[in-house]
Amino acid sequence: MAVLARLGVIVVLWAVVAEGILDPVDFLALQAVRRSLDDMPGSSFFEAWDFTADPCGFPGVFCDGNKVSALALGDPRAGSPGLSGRLDQALGRLSALTELSLVPGRVEGELPESLSSCRNLRFLAVSKNLISGQIPDGLGGLSNLRTLDVSFNQISGTIPASIATLPSITNLILCHNHLTGGIPSFPDSSPLIRLDLKHNDLSGGVPNLPSTLQYLSLSANRLTGTVDSMLPRLTRLNYLDLSMNQLDGPIPASVFTLPLSVLQLQRNFFSGLLQPANDVTIQVVDLSYNRFWGPVSPLLAGVGQLYLNNNRFTGEVPARLVQELVGSGGLQVLYLQHNFLTGIEISPASSLPSSVSLCLMYNCMVPPVYAPCPLKAGSTNTRPADQCPEWRG
Questions:
Q1: Segment 51-69 mean pLDDT
Q2: By residue range, what is the domain housing residue 325?
Q3: What is the Cα Rg of the chain in Å?
């Protein structure tokens, strides 16, 4: 009986030890990952990756039972040097992986196609490296994927249509790459909250996007067409940046009723009247370098920073806007240079607080209003008379 009791203790102890042993497939996969990556000078992330010990205790390795559940590669502290090398295809053998992140560094090569085998993957972020090639189409089969962030890399090719149909995707961040082609269509059922595609080479029109969106940035692409039928559907938007494209047509008044903190539409070909239905309280509104025309609406006086320069606005500057500036209200920046404005209802010449900025250069005002302007506004205070048909001297 004593022998049997001792055997029972041994079995129990073996079971306890075995429970902490990493699955051999995951163990070999981590070794392959380690061989494919190195610390950049000043980084010591891999110093503690000693495979004579339990890998579940390594920095950046998180386990669930005997499987790797999350992998955070590199020291996450701000300013720490990152890693170099490549992401190994062995990552696809981590069958229980739910999160994979890579700190900014100089990791190059392509995203492993094998990641499409990680069926539980929810979070994939490899921002600010030198990753190139295309987005693997197989990632569109990861039904649990919520966040895909490959921003600030050198990724090219088109956005796979399958990525847009991911049933769980909430954050799609592909900005600052070399992506081409069009923006794929998203189903109405998509739970997408953040879509960031700025600074690529995307072309074509802006498709209908999910009404769940709260953040939309498509800046610095080659997008064309109108957005007046698409924007009113996005009733939850709190950030909108469509700047530096070739978009045209009118802007619906309903855009100014969205719960936005930032509205950036500058450097496009938008045109038409700006006629908000109610007071606008968006903190930043930049509509500069477009083709808007007609009077400046006094309902824009509640904006914090208002950029309407380089358009075709006419008439007088509403007194309400100047009163907000002079009275140190919410309006802090009012840029109206390079329009066809003919006057200002009250003179701000000596009463502007030093904390606010007003520029009225190169309009049709007589006499011109002198106020500090940015250097790029030029040095000419008034338009030539032949450009001011409503000019009354």
A1: 96
A2: 248-392
A3: 28
